[in-house]
Write a structure and sequence with these properties.
Layout: H1 3-12, H2 19-34, H3 43-61, E1 71-72, E2 86-87, E3 92-93, E4 98-99, E5 104-106, E6 126-127, E7 132-133, E8 138-140, E9 144-145, E10 150-151, E11 156-157, E12 166-167
Parallel strand pairs: 1-3, 2-5, 3-6, 4-7, 5-8, 6-9, 7-10, 8-11, 10-12
Helix pairs in contact: 1-2, 2-3
């Protein structure tokens, strides 16, 4: 994947005024591009600088994790600058995916007999094309999110989602109400 064309597609999907997203996406795609040896000897000078700026902007200011190793197709949209988004480094995402703030996409670790994580056994989600992931959603484990799927606000996904499906969290319900009274006693 050519990082410049991916960045152009990312920026083309942004709504007017999404300036935080412009910075986040530019730093993310530039860090991926500078990792390629075909970039030339200049990458040895630029890459540390870009990684430092990326760390300060994305991880410190946006409280997000967008590792350059993640395989994310062109047309990524991160409204609100990707604030709080946490994506595992080995995640695979298709084209034109929209990820709102405070989304977690990650692995479920397999543990050995002593309770230690086995890194070779990480199982990660695969996300298709044109997927919408709402604020606060979590996607974990060996799930496949089909093309054009919509993951609702606050949904927790542990199972495959078919193409075109919508996943919603349980509806809000009243757990405790104040007792009905006849007014002020007094």
């Amino acid at each position: 994947m050519e990082w410049r064309s991916a960045l152009r597609e990312d920026l083309a999907r942004l709504a007017p005024g999404e300036y935080l997203s412009v910075v986040t996406l530019t730093l993310f795609r530039l860090s991926q591009g500078l990792s390629d040896p075909r970039f030339g000897p200049l990458r040895h000078v630029l890459l540390p600088l870009v990684l430092l700026v990326k760390f300060v902007w994305i991880e410190l200011l946006m409280s997000a994790q967008l590792p350059r190793a993640a395989r994310i197709g062109p047309g990524l949209r991160l409204p609100h600058g990707g604030r709080g988004v946490c994506i595992h480094p080995f995640t695979r995402m298709g084209r034109n995916v929209t990820v709102f703030e405070w989304v977690s996409i990650g692995a479920i670790e397999q543990l050995d007999d002593r309770g230690r994580a086995l890194p070779a056994d990480l199982v990660l989600p695969v996300i298709g094309d044109d997927v919408y992931i709402g604020t606060g959603a979590s996607i974990f484990g060996p799930v496949h999110i089909g093309d054009r799927a919509r993951i609702g606000i606050g949904a927790v996904v542990f199972r495959d989602v078919p193409p075109g499906a919508t996943v919603l969290p349980a509806p809000a319900r009243v757990v405790l109400r104040e007792p009905a009274g006849d007014g002020d006693a007094g």
